[in-house]
Specification:
Blueprint lengths: L17 H12 L5 H8 L4 H15 L3 H6 L5 H11 L1 H12 L3 H8 L4 H13 L15 H8 L3 H11 L8 H10 L9 H14 L4 H8 L4 H12 L6 H8 L4 H11 L1 H13 L6 H11 L4 H12 L3 H8 L2 H11 L7
Helix pairs in contact: 1-2, 1-3, 2-21, 5-6, 5-18, 5-21, 6-8, 6-18, 12-14, 14-15, 14-16, 15-16, 16-17, 17-18, 17-19
Keywords: Annexin, Calcium, Calcium/phospholipid-binding, Repeat
Organism: Cichlidogyrus casuarinus
Family: Belongs to the annexin family.
């Protein structure tokens, strides 16, 4: 049994035959009208399974499945989603930054990543230079050089570079797990005196000031920041999330930075909503969130989306997309639309 999280939307088969999957995909790739076969395989496999399929495909057919997909005649949206599924979570994030590095993408990706993820994203970003898709893009071969060249806001650029260079405090995930199991909280891992000092700096500022935030956020762990926001919001007698949403609502540079530590699931819901509102759909954001969260907590995000937005996430994605691309998204979301 290949289990996924109880809060996942992804469904996987009890029996996984990697060689059969590779062969079936190869057959489907030879027939443009067999996208359904590819969807039924890759839409029901975990990230690790898909990487195994890609390896088996290369060994059996002497071609990288990524190259085969990239050169296929499927729609660009469908190809983009397939590639995202086949390169793994870190590879997908690095590829999105490589394709379009702007304020929105770096905030949504880098500001929510931990230290290990940031290091892996940078390595994967550089490795993409050797792929067919980015072979000609030698100007921005490293993530640092791309940020230096494309992010014009000096303060924002400095913060991102500090993140990449690993200046933030980190808390070991195993230590967090032990503290939660033994004490029910993580207070022992937080320097409360430092938290109070940081809160005082924020209160002295009086209103959102990027300089103050950058100074603090570029150094502290998300665990520290979550506690800091709780203490900061306490006098207002509001949940830290609601208080901070009001406090930094009109400052786009701060919103993602704050919400990443306070309530990441709510941040993801906001990103999904923003990806589909107004004219046009931001497919890269849909791909990133749905691919990354489908085997972890997408079921929770679907519930939270309906609670906060008042609409069904599957319905919204269905109405904003089309074709094979839409069908694969519906499968990943385990939406009722793909069962009709």
């Amino acid at each position: 049994m290949n289990a996924v999280s109880e809060t996942a939307s992804l469904t996987v088969p009890q029996n996984f035959n990697v060689n059969q999957d590779a062969e079936d995909i190869h057959t489907a790739m030879s027939h443009k009208n067999e996208a359904d076969r590819i969807i039924n395989i890759l839409g029901h496999r975990t990230a690790s399974m898909r990487l195994s399929i890609r390896k088996a495909y290369a060994e059996k057919f002497h071609e990288d499945l990524l190259t085969a997909v990239y050169n296929s005649k499927y729609s660009s949206e469908f190809v983009d989603l397939l590639i995202s599924l086949l390169i793994g979570p870190i590879g997908m994030l690095a590829r999105e930054l490589r394709k379009k590095l702007d304020k929105e993408s770096v905030d949504e990706i880098l500001c929510t990543a931990n230290g290990w993820e940031l290091r892996e994203i940078q390595a994967s970003y550089e490795a993409l230079t050797s792929t067919e898709e980015f072979r000609k893009d030698t100007k921005n071969s490293t993530l640092e050089s791309a940020i230096n060249g494309k992010i014009k806001d000096g303060l924002h650029r400095d913060y991102l570079l500090k993140l990449l260079r690993g200046s933030r405090d980190e808390v070991n995930l195993e230590d967090i797990r032990v503290q939660l199991e033994t004490r029910g909280n993580t207070d022992a891992l937080i320097n409360i005196a430092q938290v109070n000092q940081d809160v005082e700096k924020l209160r002295t500022a009086g209103k959102p000031q990027e300089e103050v935030f950058v100074e603090i956020i570029s150094k502290r762990s998300n665990l520290h920041l979550k506690k800091m926001y709780d203490v900061f919001a306490k006098p207002a007698k509001l949940k830290s999330c609601d208080f901070l949403l009001r406090w930094c609502y009109h400052d786009d540079n701060l919103f993602d930075l704050v919400m990443a530590a306070v309530d990441q699931k709510l941040l993801l819901v906001a990103q999904l909503y923003n990806a589909m509102k107004g004219f046009g759909t931001k497919e890269q954001i849909l791909n990133r969130i749905i691919c990354l969260r489908s085997e972890h907590d997408m079921a929770l995000l679907k519930v939270l989306f309906e609670e906060r937005i008042g609409k069904d996430l599957g319905d919204e994605v269905y109405s904003e997309t089309s074709g094979d691309y839409r069908t694969l998204l519906m499968v990943l979301l385990n939406s009722s639309h793909h069962k009709k």
